[in-house]
Design goal:
The chain is mainly β. The protein has one domain. About 0% of the residues lie in helices and about 45% in strands. The strands form four sheets. A seven-stranded parallel sheet has the order 2-5-8-11-13-16-19, with no helix packed on it. A six-stranded parallel sheet has the order 3-6-9-12-14-17, with no helix packed on it. A four-stranded parallel sheet has the order 1-4-7-10, with no helix packed on it. The termini are far apart.
Amino acid sequence: MTADYSGSIAIVRQGVTLNCAGHTISGDGTGAGVGAFADGVTVTNCNIHGFYTGILTSQHGTRILGNVLTQNVEGIRVAAATGATASGNSANNNAERGIIVCLGASGNTVSGNAANNNGGVGIVLDTVSANYVNNNAATTMQMAASSCTPHPTTN
């Protein structure tokens, strides 16, 4: 990106990289700031605020790297995805959750992130298996069995 953007971005083509180069994506409190709806998408160097979810993926091989997610309901949602990586992100000061991995997600890596001062939980793992979570700084971390419902934009 070469400028700030107001509104959601949906990535529907496989292998696309969205590099915001430090620019901001802002919303009105609903939807997802960036929806990665294809395999192998990379979202990097974005400042995202004002959405229900800052970055949402349910696809294989998504890479969420070095983003700043604040003032959303939840910063990052990895739902039913496989082989995704969330690393080097700052998901602080969101209304409910910093990072949530849920809905059967497996084989994902969540490492080197900060998830502090969120209204609920820093990092949530909910009904998932075989995910690698390490070296994160989070105010709280929760293993749950029912806190993740389908995303409001996919109901």
